[in-house]
Amino acid sequence: MTITKRLTRQQSKQVTREQLLQSAASLFADQGVSGTSVEHIVEAAGYTRGAFYGNFEGKHELVLALLEQRTQHELEEIQAMTREAATFEVMLEHLRSWHRRRDQNLASWLALRTELWLYGLRDPELLPVLAARERRSREALAQALEQGFAARGVSTPAPVEMLALIVHALDDGLSIQRVLCPAESGTDSVVDVVELLMKSWTALARSTTAEPATEKLEKNP
């Protein structure tokens, strides 16, 4: 005999909330935030308007919740990769696997990301929320980069925040190119670029560290 445990009221509400968010994410990617109504969301999720308004005050609040959910999810994935990797090289392999999984639905992922950006750009009050989301992502990248430099025994050749910004921007740009020109941009292109940058930045850091000693020798032959 199978005994099914009934969900508590709070658990049931959480399940409803998650399904509404998933439904909204799919619809936003397909037809945009502005082109998606509350009715579309509840119909796709199989709920009523009452269930929607029992979880969100309106579509705007749902967008904010979706932004937070996606940000937290990506942060947890990056932090897990950093925590579980014994070396930066292993971290890169974890990152390759992550990008390959994302590549399976890259077009819809990018469409949703772009829609949320556009929604925020059109609402000045939402811009700080978007900025905070991007900042948290960059901070996670900065932590991973710092670990990579530390493993190589060098200091960062520039503020790690700036290096993280470069990597973050390249990820966005290369993702767009991957969707538009898949034959000209491989699945591993983002990680290949990060690996190339790390090698270049490490060489630059070592070169900068060696300069004072070289100058001293020249002055005191």
Number of self-contained structural domains:
2
CATH superfamily of the largest domain: Tetracycline Repressor, domain 2
State the CATH class of the largest domain. Mainly Alpha
Beta percentage is under 5%
List its traits:
elongated; 9 helices; mainly alpha; 221 residues; Arc Repressor Mutant, subunit A; Tetracycline Repressor, domain 2; 2 domains
What's this entry about, in short?
This protein is mainly α and 221 residues long.
Mind explaining what this structure looks like?
77% of the residues lie in helices and 0% in strands. The chain has 9 helices and no strands. It has 221 residues and is mainly alpha-helical. It folds into 2 domains: 11-56, Homeodomain-like (Arc Repressor Mutant, subunit A, Orthogonal Bundle), CATH 1.10.10; 59-211, Tetracycline Repressor, domain 2. It starts with 8 loop residues before the first helix and ends with a helix. The radius of gyration is 22 Å and the shape is elongated.
Element layout with pairings:
Blueprint: H1 9-31, H2 38-45, H3 49-53, H4 59-84, H5 88-103, H6 106-121, H7 127-151, H8 160-180, H9 189-219
